[in-house]
Amino acid sequence: MDDIQKNDKRTENFYSDAANYWSKVPATEDGMLGGFGFISNTDIEGSELFLRSAFKLKNPPRKEYALDCGSGIGRISKHLLTKHFKKVDLVEQNSEFLEAAKTYLAGRTKRVGEFFPIGLQNFCPEVGKYDVIWCQWVLGHLQDNDFIKFFSHCQAGLKENGVVIVKENITSSENVEVDTQDSSVTRPLKELQRLFDLAGFSSVKEQKQSRLPRGLYPVYMFILRPRKIIRNSVSNVLQ
């Protein structure tokens, strides 16, 4: 087997192993948060303040349409996004989670748009549709090449003045840490920033989530705006 085939196989296993892991996770808030369901309120409160700050930017995003990436059962859509946007789409590779979301989001259905049962590595947002694309605790399930491609697609999916908001675990070390149980990676801050840059985004605001229990990864939030992609840099990474 040549190197290209080996890389393709590793990529296939990376995504299939993650899908297999999440297929065994209960479709509950506690399941979505890996057994840390008790942090949900703290998480949402921090996200609420951060999202409000995005609306105070110069040339802020509008409050028409948002996309919840790696939505699970729709925890963030229910408690945050549908409170601020007229419509929210959900994209999630696990179709059973999306089915559960339809019940979980009862009472918010007028603000729920489309459900996309697909992994982010294969998802292309509709051109010019979204004011805010929200990515939380899901980017660790993308390999670097797919991370960059996904964000490049997000550029096209944003409306004028649209932003991508990212909320992710960050390693305390300078190293990428691999979780073989759920087939994910946790990246250091500089590595995330490098990938944002290669995908053509600039961070206009960064903030650490406060009041999380000790022993968990630090969690950072980013407001990202697209800029002109340096095509050669992207091409080199994607090869």
TrEMBL record:
One of its GO terms (molecular function) is N-terminal protein N-methyltransferase activity. It comes from the Eukaryota. Pfam families: Methyltransf_PK. The keyword Transferase applies. It catalyses: N-terminal L-prolyl-L-prolyl-L-lysyl-[protein] + 2 S-adenosyl-L-methionine = N-terminal N,N-dimethyl-L-prolyl-L-prolyl-L-lysyl-[protein] + 2 S-adenosyl-L-homocysteine + 2 H(+); N-terminal L-seryl-L-prolyl-L-lysyl-[protein] + 3 S-adenosyl-L-methionine = N-terminal N,N,N-trimethyl-L-seryl-L-prolyl-L-lysyl-[protein] + 3 S-adenosyl-L-homocysteine + 3 H(+); N-terminal L-alanyl-L-prolyl-L-lysyl-[protein] + 3 S-adenosyl-L-methionine = N-terminal N,N,N-trimethyl-L-alanyl-L-prolyl-L-lysyl-[protein] + 3 S-adenosyl-L-homocysteine + 3 H(+). Its EC number is 2.1.1.244. One of its GO terms (biological process) is methylation. S-adenosyl-L-methionine binds at residues 70, 75, 120-121, 136. One of its GO terms (cellular component) is cytoplasm. Keywords: Methyltransferase, S-adenosyl-L-methionine, Transferase. It is an enzyme of class 2 (transferase). The keyword Cytoplasm does not apply. Belongs to the methyltransferase superfamily. NTM1 family. This is Alpha N-terminal protein methyltransferase 1.
